[in-house]
Amino acid sequence: MSDILFQGWSGLSRVAIIGPVAYVALVLMLRVSGKRSLAKLNAFDLIVSVALGSVLATTLLSKTVALAEGLAAFAMLLLLQYLIAWTSSRSESFKEVISNPPTLLYHQGFLEGPMNAARISSEELRQVTRCSGHAQLTDVTSIVLESDGTFSVLTDDPTPLTR
Fold this sequence. Notes:
Elements: H1 2-5, H2 9-33, H3 43-61, H4 67-90, H5 92-98, E1 103-107, H6 112-118, H7 122-131, E2 142-145, E3 151-154
Antiparallel strand pairs: 1-2, 2-3
């Protein structure tokens, strides 16, 4: 039972030493790679974000992964993400392969075909409407399922939202 709660000081000291170094290295790499690295504009961006977290956790907790290997994995993931983003911004055919175009699910009424293809129900669109601050669907002109899996709720109201 004690092994579950405490396995010795070596694991804790590894986390205390490698944790801050790996964290600072990841932050610096993200700053160098630019804002696009964490934009989550498509599925590949989401995969990179999840993979970076996984690499950080593995580097911190696995005694078989050296800090240099973790930093190399960070760099490789960010480089691959950069190359995919760079290529997709310059090649329409490549962009079509890696990106899902946005899907219009509601436009002054439910669009059953796109909703079925996206596996989204009318109740889920009502929930999206409520979560966006609108009491009912009649307040909404369109609902779009974006490439990154988020929903955009559009209205005719020209008043911009303030933050």
